Amino acid sequence: MPVAAARRRRPGRAARIASLVLAACAAKAVLAAPGPFEQRFATCLACHGASGQSQTPLTPSLGGQPAFFAMTQLFLLRDGRRGEPVMIEQAKGMSNDDLRAFADAISKLPPPLPPTDKADPLRFERGRALAAQHRCGVCHNPDFSGREQMPRLANQREDYLLKAMREFASGKRLGYGAAMTQELSGLSDTDLTDLAHFFAHQPPAKAAGRPAAR
Fold first, then answer.
1. In this structure, what DSSP letter does residue 51 have?
2. Whole-angstrom distance, CA of residue 188 vs CA of residue 166
3. According to the model, what pLDDT value does residue 27 have?
4. What are the distances in angstroms from CA 113 to CA 28, 69, 147?
5. Is the CB of residue 70 less than 8 Å from the CB of residue 107?
6. What is the Cα–Cα distance from 56 to 155, expressed in whole angstroms?
7. Alpha carbon of 61 to those of 64, 74, 99: distances in Å?
8. What domains appear along the chain, each with residue ranges and CATH number?
9. How far apart are CA 37 and CA 103, in angstroms?
10. pLDDT for 177
11. pTM of the model
């Protein structure tokens, strides 16, 4: 074959570079494709909100929940002992390693921000007094950020907090123990409403190392 003809049949340098770039992009796309865990976690966030910040009525924000608490709730869901049927179905077949991975991912989501609507001063103060009387800050932390098996209450959706506390007060909802039912069983519905309002309207957490505004 003549040299000139062979040169004409060889791909040019630009074509070879383009081919390499396309191959690299294809490999990157395969590596970036969501796996089973990412797909299932995305299904959770479809209801609980991007980054765990719920915009759906009666659906809690997941962001900032302690890993141990999240794992406990997932275990109860997998066991069919609490939760909505659609959530129980999602949790079926999850291994203990799955539960740990989901709980760890939930704990790393950013905590929810305070709601945009301002707190009602009277309801907020009544809720504060009830929270102090029932020592909610002892278990849930003084800033209500949650720890171990105790959930984060600060800036959780108000409607969900009220729903959860009503279910605890009636004995319908399972907890880590009987403490919540004992604490809430004697409260009126107005008391529960004020507590939910107080927890939902907590001030934003102060940034670490940043002096408080004067």
1. G
2. 10
3. 35
4. 35, 20, 18
5. yes
6. 14
7. 9, 15, 18
8. 36-107 (1.10.760.10), 121-200 (1.10.760.10)
9. 12
10. 67
11. 0.77
Structure tokens given for 150: 């105790």
- In the chain, which residues have pLDDT < 70? 1-35, 176-177, 206-214
Determine the pLDDT at residue 12: 60
180-190: per-residue pLDDT in tens? 988 898 899 99
Q: Which two tokens stand for residue 169?
A: 């007060």
Which pLDDT does position 19 carry in this prediction? Answer: 46
**Phi, psi for residue 150 in degrees, rounded to 5:** -95, 125
Could you tell me if residue 32 is left (phi over 0), alpha (psi between -120 and 50 degrees) or otherwise beta?
alpha
The whole-angstrom separation of Cα 197 and Cα 120 is: 8
SS3 labels along 122-172:
HHHHHHHHHHHHCCHHHHHCCCCCCECCECCCCCCCHHHHHHHHHHHHHCC
Predicted pLDDT of residue 40: 82
What's the pLDDT score for residue 13?
Answer: 57
